[in-house]
Structures are given as C-alpha cells and as structure tokens.
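Task: sequence design from structure.
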C-alpha cells in the first residue's frame, strides 16, 4: 500500500499569551489580511494566507511562537505505516483531536508539528482550538 502526500490548507500559528494580542493586531490591522473568522468569533482568528488559512491560536504555556502545518495523505492508514517505518515521531498527545477526526500528529526532524489528514477530509472548525 502506498500513499501520496500534499500540503494541506491550514497553517496554525501557536502564539504565547504575552504576544497574542499584538500578533493578532499585526495581521488584522497592519497587514490587513482578509479575515475569515465569522463575526463575533474572536477565540481563534483565521486569515487568508494566499491559498492557505492561517489560524492564530493563543497558547499560554508557550514561551515562543510555533508554526504547525497540515499535510494531506491519499491513504491515512498507509501514511501512518509509511511514516512509522521511516522513524517519524508520532506525537498525538500534543493536542487532542475529536474522535471522529481520522488524523494524527507527527513532528519533523526539526520539531515542526504536522497534522496528517486524509486528503478527502477537511478538519473540523475547532481542530486548532485549545481543548
């Protein structure tokens, strides 16, 4: 069984609480990126970032920002086996995913977190929110 990988539509920026408000203001007021967040929903602002969606998540336990990326796999089970055979570290404990969400977390060799998702699915609206 083989699988193909491709970039997903989502980029999550995990931002320390002490830098969160100024970072949101940077994307909203200085760069004036198109905001995709529904009116009144300010918990996790989302912005158009080219053909991607940039999620800005407040993370009180972090000391510096992190970028998390989404990778799509044509066959999620084959992807899991393939990555495991090549020594890629699963890190599903990094953030809870809903039970019905058939995806998993890995880390690259330089510790960038990746959400590996089925190519035919899209993540729930709250996948990057603190649970």
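Answer:
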């Amino acid at each position: 069984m083989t699988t193909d990988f491709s970039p997903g539509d989502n980029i999550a920026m995990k931002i320390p609480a002490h830098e969160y408000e100024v970072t949101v203001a940077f994307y909203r007021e200085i760069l004036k990126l198109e905001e995709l967040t529904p009116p009144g929903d300010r918990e996790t602002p989302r912005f158009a970032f080219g053909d991607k969606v940039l999620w800005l998540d407040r993370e009180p336990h972090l000391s510096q920002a992190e970028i998390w990326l989404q990778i799509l796999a044509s066959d999620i089970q084959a992807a899991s086996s393939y990555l495991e055979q090549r020594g890629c570290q699963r890190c599903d404990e990094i953030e809870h995913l809903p039970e019905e969400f058939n995806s998993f977390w890995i880390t690259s060799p330089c510790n960038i977190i990746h959400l590996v998702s089925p190519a035919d699915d899209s993540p729930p609206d709250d996948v990057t929110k603190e649970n």
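The chain has two helices and seven strands.
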